Here is the input.
Amino acid sequence: MLLLGELRLQATRESLLPVTYFIHSIASSKQLVSSSLQEIELLLEEAITQIIHFAYPNRTPGEMIIRMEIESSDAEILVVSLTDYGEPFAMDLIPLGGGIEFERQVAAESGQANVLTLRGRIERSEPGVLTALDRELNAIQTISEMMTTNIELDDLLKMIVDKLVEAVGAERGTLYLVDEGHGELYSKVLMEDSSVLSEIRVKIGEGLAGHVALTGEVLNVRHAYEDQRFNRSFDQRTGFRTETILAAPLHTPQQKLIGVAQLVNKRRGEFSSRDERLLVAMASQAAISIENSRLYAREIQQRLTIQELNTGRNIQRSFLPAALPERPGWDIAARWEPAHTVSGDFYDMQKLDDDRWAICIGDVSGKGVPAALFMALTVTVLRFAIDMHVGCSQLLQQANRLILSFNEQSEMFATIFVGYLDTASGEMQFASGGHNPPLLYRARSGRFERLTARGIIVGLLDEVTFVEEKVTLEPNDVLVMYTDGITEAMTLSNDEFGVERLEAVIQSCAAASAQELTQAVIENVAAFTGDAGLFDDETLVVIKRTAHT
Here is the structure.
């Protein structure tokens, strides 16, 4: 006897597919073909099924040993033996043809070996000729390779369907994917005499594919038109005639259902139990490939989104002043820190004449891209209004009118503080559109003034009035403009940084430079929030008068 191979495995239904591949892989490697090879495989399948049920009645699976050998004789005989150590029982096997011989040695006592021996004549195939198993293994290998390739999902689905159809020997195949939002399965199929992909949808629980998705069962339908779950509409539209259907769920390794694989019309006969196991095995591989393709597509989309947001951030930065005013006797610094990639905060500084500067700070409603777009609009409108050489209150009125004219659909708005600073005298005229009152630290008294002016949010109402106020900065006074991302920064326990803490930082750093004070505020806010991180955009403008000019 020439030993070809030996396989040890547990007596479970999960072992049926490895047994099939064990037999055919050896047969393929030795170029063995036989009209009886399939019958040997089917008899082994029936024998293992009986062993599972009768040899281990307590449902604790035992070990099975399968050996493949060739008898030394002029006519080569393939000998396959199946050994188990379960409870002895009389096995009932019906030969299917092909000249198969078999004998069963049943142990006298429990725990001793029970042996089934199958014999059948074999022949050698010509080199290069693919067997059925070769095609199956090639199909599984192809789908496995897809797991590590970056293929567009539609192309991947077509490749998987083609391989399933080829391996199982079906006329057609369809892969349905789960649409969780609608509780449906959907698939794109190529209609007859058309180059257009038509999407078909099935409710989960309806039809054969829907039933598989709902129950997780494998369906092998031998007469489609006799099954009440079968939907005939596709056949009616295409003129195709469905006879047999094999369908299996697509589950990820985490047992998440992502779809259903369905094959139609076995080319020769009906779909077998072996076809069922093959489809289940390939469906598992396909599910991983599909998920990987989705993850890759999602990663590419995220990269594109990040790239677009970074571009948006750079564009936003271009709306901020390229340089801050440098005037004798004045120290000015600013900080713009988006909570995410883009921001709804802004500040601006535009020269009015030799000594006067328009200084603005604002915060638009909303977050993310909409806020970033509205920020760009608001800065553009403010610069247009500044060029009209009107006072602070008139500037906000013009901005309010223009923003409303562009704002009928978005319903967004902005809080804005604008001041006209005369660097020669230190006087600043200002108006507010509902913005946080800037803090003016008086160096001589060590006290704070909050710059308030009557006015409401910009871009909200048609008829609004903004009242203009004025104040004078003395030497060593410090003016801090800020957005609510500073004072409303919160800890994980929902404590706010608040205006009082901001004033404490300003007072402690009043002798420092404007840039050092700005950095101190940002660092104190970060230390206060800790693990909570940056929740909202943070923007600061610090203006310090260092001496008389």
